[in-house]
């Protein structure tokens, strides 16, 4: 009771507070109550589409974003909403079409172009991704994310020397990012510079001691170099802190089998 005496701005404020607390189901109920009276309110529909996406109800989210677009085809982030849902549903061609429609409507939107580039990398469309990321650098040369993703493009195509240059540029802009430090370590390992690889893997873990991938990478590297005791210590360290880490258990069992 009293809900419909509130104006839309107040409803959106309450819904956004729920979203900030990850209470997406509660936010959906609030938006649905409002839409029973005002079924074509674009702002409320848009927020509801986001909430359904967050609870992994991608088909329902798609349905809502399609309705938003019918009401106003010029809303770029509604097309992005479609793209994100189709991406989750592994419908890559349709995701690609909707990403491009969103970009057509908002061509210099950094966050949109970055998400598109990440999608392209995932789809192994590396040349298009490279072009998009270079555009991002021209838009904002001080943002580390484009350099980091360009590094990923070159790393995935076995161009480690090119990759490391972009990762180092990203690291200069964002010095304590554990993912960047781990990527630099991975490049140095592939270039057989094991001391530097170890240094960066350890720096990555020190930057976030709940990010276990660099320790796992270091353990696998030590194993490949025949340093089994070092590898075992690292794997046990991961398991002690993260008992659900299947990769650590798997590598430990492999080492026991072949040692």
Distance between the termini: 69 Å
Number of helices: 15
Compute the CA-based radius of gyration: 23 Å
Instruction: Give the number of DSSP strands.
Output: 0
Shape, principal axes of CA atoms: globular
Overall residue-averaged pLDDT value: 92
The stretches of 5 or more residues where confidence is low (pLDDT under 50) are: 1-5
**Helix-strand makeup class:** mainly alpha
The ordered string of helix (H) and strand (E) elements is HHHHHHHHHHHHHHH
Q: Percentage of helical residues?
A: over 70%
Strand content: under 5%
Describe the sheet with the most strands: none
Describe what is shown at a glance:
The protein is mainly α and about 260 residues long. The chain has helices at about 10-20, 25-35, 40-55, 60-70, 75-90, 90-105, 110-120, 125-140, 145-155, 160-175, 180-190, 195-205, 215-225, 230-240, 245-259.
């Amino acid at each position: 009771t009293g809900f419909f005496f509130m104006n839309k701005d107040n409803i959106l404020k309450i819904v956004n507070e729920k979203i900030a607390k990850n209470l997406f189901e509660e936010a959906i109920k609030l938006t649905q109550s409002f839409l029973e009276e005002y079924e074509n309110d674009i702002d409320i529909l848009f927020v509801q589409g986001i909430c359904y996406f967050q609870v992994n109800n991608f088909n329902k989210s798609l349905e809502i974003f399609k309705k938003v677009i019918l009401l106003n085809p010029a809303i770029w982030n509604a097309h992005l909403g479609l793209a994100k849902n189709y991406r989750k549903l592994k419908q890559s061609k349709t995701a690609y079409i909707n990403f491009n429609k969103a970009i057509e409507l908002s061509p210099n939107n950094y966050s949109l172009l970055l998400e598109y580039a990440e999608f392209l990398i995932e789809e192994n469309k590396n040349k298009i991704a490279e072009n998009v990321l270079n555009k991002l650098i021209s838009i904002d040369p001080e943002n580390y994310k484009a350099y980091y993703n360009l590094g990923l493009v070159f790393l995935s195509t076995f161009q480690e020397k090119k990759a490391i240059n972009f990762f180092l540029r990203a690291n200069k802009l964002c010095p304590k990012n554990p993912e960047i430090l781990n990527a630099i370590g991975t490049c140095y390992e592939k270039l057989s510079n094991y001391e530097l690889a170890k240094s960066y893997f350890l720096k990555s873990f020190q930057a976030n001691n709940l990010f276990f991938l660099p320790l796992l990478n270091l353990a696998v590297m030590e194993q490949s170099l025949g340093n089994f005791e070092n590898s075992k210590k690292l794997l046990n360290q991961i398991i002690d802190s993260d008992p659900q880490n299947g990769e650590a258990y798997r590598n430990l069992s492999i080492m026991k089998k072949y040692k």
